[in-house]
Amino acid sequence: MILPVYVYGSPVLKKVAEPIAELTPELKILIADMFETMYHAGGVGLAAPQIGKSIRLIVMDASPFAEDDPIAEGFKRVLINPELVEFSDEECAFNEGCLSLPKLYVDIKRPAKVRVKYLDENFKEHDEWWEGTPARIVQHETDHLNGILFVDHLAPIRKKLMSSRLQKMAKGDFTSRYKTKIG
Questions:
Q1: With contact defined as beta carbons under 8 Å apart, do 46 and 58 qualify?
Q2: Does residue 129 contact residue 71 with C-beta atoms inside 8 Å?
Q3: From CA 63, how far away is CA 73, in angstroms rounded?
Q4: CATH code of the domain covering residue 132
Q5: pLDDT per residue as tens digits for the range 127-148
Q6: What is the total count of domains within the chain?
Q7: SS3 call for 181
Q8: One-character DSSP codes across 79-104
Q9: Calculated CA dihedral for residues 180, 42, 61, 65, nearest 10 degrees
Q10: Which of 26, 134, 158, 165 has the most CB atoms within 10 Å of its CB?
Q11: In 8-154, which residue ranges form alpha helices assigned H by DSSP?
Q12: Is the pLDDT of residue 19 over 90?
């Protein structure tokens, strides 16, 4: 089922999400719905707060970036209770967008590599180093679980320059090709 994506100004996007204690049939359905929603909206990652659920769950598929980043080929994951436990010193900038901030793209610097600990859709533990597009996506989506949006990484002056656009978005003054919700 395609779910509405919560947009900038929705309180759920600023909350720290709760850990998931167990794998349930409802969680498996939610994971499938999140993938369907993400693909429908043209995204490569989606965190549960973006669909109104304040739980520590991410779905991602980096494959659309495979032409520019071979690491992204077939890189599809479910992350339950992810933790970013180590980062490289090297950083790289990328023009990020977000389904919760429709049609807004900004260059954001993030570590080039990250060590990720998480449970998969079968509650199996993983501890892996990721780089390239997958590292970028997991950092962006994990921010969502911590109540952080990519615009929160901007210098205050840059954020101030786009404050009018963000305020309009929070009031529903934007267009999107996928279902959205404010609140």
A1: yes
A2: no
A3: 5
A4: 3.90.45.10
A5: 999 999 999 999 999 999 999 9
A6: 1
A7: strand
A8: EEEEEEEEE-S-EEEEEEEETTEEEE
A9: -140
A10: 134
A11: 25-41, 132-145
A12: yes
* Number of residues that this document lists for the chain: 183
Give the burial string for 12-38 (b: 16+ CB within 10 Å, else e): bbeeebeebeeeeeebeebbebbbebb
Residue in the block written with tokens 């901007």: 154
Q: How far apart are CA 171 and CA 183, in angstroms?
A: 10
pLDDT in tens, 43-98: 999 999 999 999 999 999 999 999 999 999 999 999 999 999 999 999 999 999 99
Positions annotated as catalytic residues are: 141
**Whether the predicted model's global pTM rises above the 0.90 cut:** yes
Query: What is the structure's pLDDT at 183?
Result: 86
The amino acid at 26 = E
User: Would you say 83 and 40 are in contact if contact means Cβ atoms under 8 Å apart?
Assistant: no
Q: Can you say whether residue 132 is alpha, beta or left, with left for phi > 0 and alpha for psi between -120 and 50 degrees? A: left
Give me 126's structure tokens.
């993983």
Instruction: Using alpha carbons, select from 100, 19, 96 the residue that is nearest to residue 52.
Output: 100
User: Given the structure tokens 């959205």, which residue do they identify?
Assistant: 180
Which residue range(s) make up the domain with 34?
5-181
Question: What are the structure tokens assigned to 19, written together?
Answer: 């850990």
Q: Which residue has the tokens 């949006």?
A: 149
